[in-house]
TrEMBL record:
Protein known as: FAR-17a/AIG1-like protein
Reactions that this protein is recorded to catalyse: 12-(9Z-octadecenoyloxy)-octadecanoate + H2O = 12-hydroxyoctadecanoate + (9Z)-octadecenoate + H(+); 13-(9Z-octadecenoyloxy)-octadecanoate + H2O = 13-hydroxy-octadecanoate + (9Z)-octadecenoate + H(+); 13-octadecanoyloxy-octadecanoate + H2O = 13-hydroxy-octadecanoate + octadecanoate + H(+); 9-(9Z-octadecenoyloxy)-octadecanoate + H2O = 9-hydroxy-octadecanoate + (9Z)-octadecenoate + H(+)
Alphabetized InterPro entries for the sequence: ADTRP_AIG1 (IPR006838)
Broad class of where this protein is predominantly found: membrane
Organism placement in taxonomy: Eukaryota, Metazoa, Ecdysozoa, Arthropoda, Hexapoda
Protein's organism: Popillia japonica (Japanese beetle)
Length: 238
């Protein structure tokens, strides 16, 4: 293996462990009593799965597991049309552009944006004793940092824009439907900010967030082109 491959292998292994451990810890040890805050109310087994943050943590865990396995059995070739393209490499090239990058940036930016405006809208002080600061940063900060590092460290082929955006839209709409199912069953919105909005404002809010996810997909596409365009051109001329 080259020095770059060894370095990336170590980083991918760390990312893989990092997010799986955070997901495990959150599922087993973070329990917010409903008497402390309504965010602790559950519907079935939705105690964690009601949060997009947790969906994203599982997504990043899966993606970096695939990245880790790709270094062992997949294809790490820097080429717009790699030879002997493995299923692992194809999954990696599809998941990061369509889900891992836009969802991680979406979760991080919306969380910290609302937190700076009024933390009670997204992360009330009442839950601080139950949700440690290190886990908060893993779930809402490291997700952005690590996926940006991945963009710079490893080449990937972006899918066609309709395919990539289609996968992203299905993911976001599935979560939006799930959010409303939980509200119908419990009478509680998962995120406190939704309690403050009337129906019209919620519609505008959801449309704005879906639009933001599309923008973040395109931003990821442009970042990838900016980082790897010259490298791909160089590989073509070899």
């Amino acid at each position: 293996m080259t020095t770059r491959a060894v370095a990336y292998f170590a980083v991918a292994a760390h990312f893989w462990y990092h997010f799986w451990y955070a997901s495990y810890y959150d599922w087993n040890y973070v329990n917010i009593p409903p008497t402390v805050h309504p965010m602790g109310i559950t519907y079935g087994r939705t105690n964690k799965l009601k949060f997009l943050t947790y969906w994203d943590a599982l997504l990043q865990s899966l993606f970096f597991t695939i990245s880790f396995l790709n270094e062992i059995w997949g294809n790490t070739e820097v080429s717009p049309s790699p030879r002997n393209n493995s299923i692992i490499r194809k999954l990696k090239d599809l998941i990061l552009p369509s889900l891992a990058f836009p969802i991680s940036m979406f979760v991080g930016l919306t969380f910290w944006g609302l937190y700076l405006v009024d933390r009670e809208l997204v992360f009330p002080k009442a839950i601080d004793p139950y949700f440690p600061p290190w886990l908060n940063h893993v779930m809402h900060t490291n997700i952005m940092v690590f996926v940006l590092l991945e963009m710079y460290m490893s080449f990937r082929r972006y899918p066609s824009r309709p395919l990539g955006l289609g996968i992203l839209a299905i993911f976001m709409l599935c979560y939006l439907v799930w959010l409303h199912v939980i509200y119908i069953k419990t009478g509680i919105w998962v995120y406190p900010i939704l309690e403050k909005l009337n129906l019209a404002a919620r519609v505008v809010f959801f449309v704005s967030l879906l639009s933001l996810s599309v923008v973040l997909y395109i931003v990821g596409e442009k970042i990838n082109q900016r980082i790897w365009l010259n490298r791909v051109k160089f590989e073509k001329t070899r």
